[in-house]
Structure formats: C-alpha cells, structure tokens
Prior knowledge:
This protein has 194 residues and is α/β, with parallel strands linked by helices. Helix content is 29%, strand content 20%. The chain has a single domain, classed as Hexapeptide repeat proteins (UDP N-Acetylglucosamine Acyltransferase, domain 1). It has helices spanning 5-33, 36-47, 51-65, and strands spanning 68-69, 74-75, 80-81, 87-88, 93-94, 99-100, 103-105, 110-111, 116-117, 142-144, 149-150, 155-156, 165-166, 171-172, 180-183, 188-191. The mean pLDDT is 86.
Amino acid sequence: MKLTYLTKSVLVRVFYIITFIPALFSLTVYLIVNSDSAFVSFAKLFSLIPGKMGNYMRTSYYMLTLTECHYDLSVDFCSFFAHPNAKVRRGVVIGSFSIIGSADLGNNVLISSKVSILSGKFQHKIGQDISPGIYYEGFDNIRIDDNSWIGEGVIVMANIGKNCIVSAGSTVTRAMKDHTTAIGNPARIIQLES
C-alpha cells in the first residue's frame, strides 16, 4: 500500500504531537533547574530512543530547547547536542553516535556517524578546575555553512564554509573557505573546481 503525501504529512504531525509532551516536560525541568547539565541529561536520554519515534522525540526536544532549530532536523540514534546555544537550519541530517557542541549548522548540512563538532580548539584554560558538570564559558561557536558534508569519524574544531566536503577520519583544525575539501589529520585543504 502506497501512502499519499497528505497521509504522510498527517502521520508526521501526529508523531510530533505525541513526542511534544515528553519534550515539554523536559523543557520545564531544564528551565526550572536552569543548568546545562539538565539540558545534556535529557539530550542523552532522548538519544537512546531508537527508530523514527526517537528521531521525532529528539527533534521535538531540540525545537524547544536550542537557540534555533528547524522542524525537519534528523538526529539518529545515540547522537546529541551538548550545548543549548546551538543553531540548526533547514534540512540538517546527523548520523548515529555524533556529538555536536556549540555549533551553528547551515541549510542542508549532512553529518555522518561518529562525528565530533567541538566548541573550538581551546575548551579549557590552563590551571582551570575541570570538575564534572563545570563548563568553561568561553566556547567558540563553530559554523558549518550551507550544503557542506562531513564524513564519518571527523573531528571539527574550526569553521567550515559553504559547499565543503570533509573526508572521513579528518580533523579540521583551521577554517575552510567555501568550495573546498579537507583530507587527513590534521586536514589539508584542497580548493575544488568551480
């Protein structure tokens, strides 16, 4: 039996309504506690829900808690955002087992599995107490611009421009201009033909 577009649209709305209720509860707890630890705790909890229902649950939660989040976000199993100040535009897809820090994701960004987007290169000050639950407030907001693709197992520590490709297993330590490819660890930047 083939579903029509209208039927699919109605089903998607029903799933969002179902997942909105626990997301609203978690938002309430997060606002009362007023702590990044509460945000991350719920993000990790929702990351463990498998399948489509888990994807809808994560999207509902991030629509309520992130600084900006579009409704067509897709976050696979065991992936989560580590900071509520992240921004997510249209068409973003995040594969399994990825951790997104303080980031600004442009339209149609594709992130493969096991990707780590750090909140910059310098997350701790020398001599700083790195106790659990205590975060350094000087995180960089990493920008990944429109239509960029991040391969499996990549570590991102710097901004990535539009229409870029980061090869699997690479570590991006310096900013990438538009229309470039990064390969290796540390990543070498290669200009693409326009």
